[in-house]
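As a representative case, the lines below give one protein's residues and fold tokens.
***
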Amino acid sequence: MLCSNCMLSVFYSIRWFGIGTRELRRLKMGRVVLVTGAARSGKSEWAERLARESGKSVVYVATAQRYPDDAEWDARIATHIQRRPADWRSLEVPIELAEAIDGARAGEILLVDSLGTWVGNLLDESEADWRLRCEALVRQVRASNADVVFVAEETGWGVVPAYPVGRLFRDRLGRLVRVMGQVAGETFLVVAGFAVDLRRVGTAID
């Protein structure tokens, strides 16, 4: 017998966000790219390459929050900063991601790194508030004339987390990445330093 959380997960799909797949495919919007992969797989480097080669003005949207007492986390952030070209504009947006995309202009490409960090920043939100926030994000992506590249982490390929907060993070991120996979015109899975174009080799199930 499935647990209640597992049963709820079965019913979550793109329509959980109030948006149908056909509706998404009819809309005109900027180029949307999803780059997903495991830790240290090279997903951020691939997303940065796509942004750099776009020929557009790059806005790097960092969702990480800074913690003064966490030197290791600060070192990770510093590594990402050092990789960025000097002419890229950077925004630190740990919460208001939809609003940041709303402020983008045609001719720009936003590199959002990452969805997983953004989800983690908002785990205290109720399910209803989280759903509204995700709906706002998806709708803003649809409305934007700018290009957007999302970096996301792959979770849930192993055992079920032992703690409720771990299960919540896994489920929320997994649902969001699945929806973004439908919104995106290009979706890449990065594994062991190789980027796989899922639109070319995969079959959409939604």
Q: What stands out?
A: Strands lie at 32-37, 57-62, 89-92, 108-113, 147-153, 186-191, 194-197.
